[in-house]
Amino acid sequence: MRAVIQRVKKSSVAVDGKIIGEIGQGFNLLLGIKEDDTEADMDYIINKAIHLRIFEDENGKMNQSLLDIDGELLVISQFTLYGDCRKGRRPSFIRSGPVDIAEKKYHLFTKKISEQSVKKVAFGQFQADMEVEIINDGPVTILLDSEKEF
After folding, report:
1. For residue 61, with 0-12 CB atoms within 10 Å meaning exposed, 13-18 middle and 19 or more buried, which class applies?
2. 32 neighbors 95 (Cβ within 8 angstroms)
């Protein structure tokens, strides 16, 4: 399981021109799922994400987590996080999970992350063509991989 975390001042996601999720200060979590991802992979990403100290404290140091600042979270599925561009010019998405399996895992992920002590959690729509608006803060972007490939 992979995640790209972007620290934001605010963000929203729309489908067919209608906003389906929006947050204030916090971060976007773009989520990539593989067929063999387990609940342990989900737990790793969730724990790491909500406890990452990427928000500034009173001294201007990145020393506070999403929970510390009472921040909000927008989760968006993004199968392209497993795009492999090492060979040729067209990405291969072989490592992305099949849609039916990935959708079940995405919904389990959303359930699990909703049970955390995050002030507000909003979501995109699985397999939809989404428009995401982001006001980056920093910018700060962090990559997570449950297999610790990077």
Report:
1. exposed
2. no
Catalytic residue among 55, 78, 109, 123: 78
Q: What's the total number of domains in the chain? A: 1
78: annotated active-site residue: yes
What is the per-residue pLDDT across 43-99, written as a single tens digit (0 to 9) for each?
A: 999 999 999 999 999 999 999 999 999 999 999 999 999 999 999 999 999 888 789
Domain that holds residue 45: 2-145
In this structure, is residue 150 part of a structural domain? no
Options 25, 27, 55, 79, the catalytic residue: 79
Verdict on whether the full-model pTM lies above 0.85: yes
**Which CATH number is 102's domain given?**
3.50.80.10
Is 49 a domain residue?
A: yes
